[in-house]
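Below is our example:

___
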Amino acid sequence: MNPLKKLFKQTAIYGLATVLPRMLSFLLLPLYTNILETAGFGKVSVIFAWFAIFNVLLAYGMETAFFRFYHSDDDKSKVVSTSLLSILVSSLVFFVVALLFQNSMADLTGIDTRYIRLTIYILTLDALVIIPFAWLRANEKPMKYAIIKIVNVVINFGLNIFFLLFLPSIAESNPDGVMAMIYKPDFEITYIFISNLIASGITLIFMLSLYLDSKYSFDKELWKRMMKYGWPVLVAGIAFSINEVFDRIMLEHILPENIAESEVGKYSACYRLGLFMTLFATAFRMGIEPFFFSHSGTENPQKTYAQITNYFVIIGSVILLAVIVFADVLKELFVRDEAYWEAMNIVPLVILASFFLGIYHNLSVWYKVTDKTRYGAFISVIGAIITIGINYMFISSISYMASAIATLLAYGTMMVLSYYLGKSHYPVPYNFRKILFYLGISILFSAISFYGFERSLYAGIPLLLIFLALVYKLENDKLRRIFLKPKT
């Protein structure tokens, strides 16, 4: 099979598995914004921001290190068992220590202790499935990966619907019943995390087979090499988390207390309208990361990497323009409460920022396949410094617009840095004339639609159709050669 065709097929399956968990937050957005006030949704968003940071800490680069050594080491079982033991021990240590200091963590973050406790349980369960999921990806088992991810989503989504919609009405209609004993008023945020906890627990049960089948032989030298490879990934991951979610935490702490959580809620709700780009970029990355490593030893892999980036930019440019053209339609579908719409001006910025991040992930192949992950850490730290600096200086004057601008500048800078550093370490023949052409036209049409015509569909839809026609005219033959069987 054509390697690009295989890549896109696996990306589609991984994409479904990756999109659905992230779509969960998007599908639940109308429910949360209906049931929770802006301040309540802001509180949930801040907790999930801490989630993202601790998820990275508990993975400490081991997932990427696992991919690297699983493909390069002859004794794959030793790589699996060493990785599993490392994650198992670190997760249990975190669990015990975090529970011992949960009150201190609550005081430090300003989050209620009951939420801290639930967060500790969820983080531990999620950490324990990192290597099993990585093993499925490394062994090219996208269907099993997708099914387990989908089950997690269905359970989480179903429990959210039950706890937030059905349980209150059932308890009210039958106050002496069992459901009335379960139901607690003003317990919505806790129910959200209980749903997540149950889904994470069931997911771990599905993934236990790898733990049960492992020989549990720990290779200390291998572990040291994996940690050496993985620590820059950890630094990069923390920096990425800062770029992605730390703005919510800074908004909460810098803005006046009486409006902080409400502003975070508005910002977070409208930020999620950029999820379409994030989903595409994440799905693509899930497919290309193992592909990068497995094809790094083939003849002239750089040419294939360049082609992949071209197609990523083409598809991403279409998504960028489409989401911005239909931004007002999306807000009415998913952000029902008009109180949140005040933050709609951030949407073009966060979508473009997510696009830049996706391009960066494609460009980052050079430091991953050459084992120079320290450069990834350096680039990510630069992005984090930009994020923190701009938020710190401008949140007090322009509120969440500072966060959106910071995200765009951080990811844009990371993208440019990765390209220029990669040119000297691992040259890839990117067609930057084509990349800049599609990216530039998409940004131009998006700006005309969103700002020039104030989001009018009468202007936006024709611009989108023109862009689609342009893509079809220029790329039709190449796409046919990839996805259709050649005539015999």
Residues 3-483 form one domain. Residues 132 and 405 are 37 Å apart (CA to CA).
